[in-house]
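Response to reviewer comment R2.3. The reviewers asked that we include at least one raw input/output pair. We reproduce the pair for AraC family transcriptional regulator here without editing.
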Amino acid sequence: MENILKFDTVAQYNAFNDHETLHPLVSVLDFSKTHPRQHFRANFGVYTIFLKEVKCGNLRYGCNYYDYEEGTLVFVAPGQVIGVENNGEVYQPQGQVLVFHPDLIRGTSLGRHIEDYTFFSYEVHEALHLSEREHKVILDCLSKIKLELELPIDKHSRKLIVSNIELFLNYCERFYDRQFITREQVNKGILQRFEDLLTDYFKSDKPQEIGLPTVGYFAEQLHLSANYFGDMVKKETGKSAQEYIHLKIMDVAKEKIFDTSKTVSEIAYELGFKYPQHFSRAFKQHVGSTPNEYRMLN
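Raw output as returned:
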């Protein structure tokens, strides 16, 4: 069985990378100053953001090419396992990494809202690709954090470091919004596949077999992380993926209600509801009348 390295503290990760620990809860490392290495997998107990300084070439999104080859950001939340694949060859990593312990942000504004940065649970292939201008902004943010780490720790250190990390993440949020826009064509293709999967779901026996459709189910079918899929649907439609699914359920329900040979309970089970009363309640919230009232009105 493959050994998985475990980094529960900033000091452990610094030691692995031959880097001095200037602050016990946060660090900015330059990979070019670390030792060469081979393939490894690691379990992170800290927030880790990799800036990969590698040339990606022209990335093709839909029918267009976009030249975002100035760097790529990959986000890892505590508890995630990642690995580097390089066919067993020794390589010298390039780029920088920001790593911080959850204790650093505990009780702060960032700590209360860290889950809003949903890109921490994106898959590696959903990484953020930077333009030249964006790359400079990211380097500037990292340099500010690094500068603060090189100063003696005082009562202002934590506040300033956390504020700069929050600024860094807010810029990443903006840049991801830009990336969703540049991927508009391919996103529309994913939305069409999502719509097709939704339609096929209710034409199959899946509602009776596995219940109501979930965001996680469709994300898996589309080979996307649930958060990336949800964020993409929200950006493209203005509705959350859950709202989109709910609207589809109600549309299918309205069609089924016209079939007077079926009771409301039978329709509820066909749609994947465990309990008919849950279906009736959801239908009334969405339509404004109960299923039976809707049937009589139409």
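The domain at 4-182 is CATH 2.60.120 (Jelly Rolls). Confidence is low (pLDDT under 50) at residues 55-68. Further pairs are available on request from the corresponding author.
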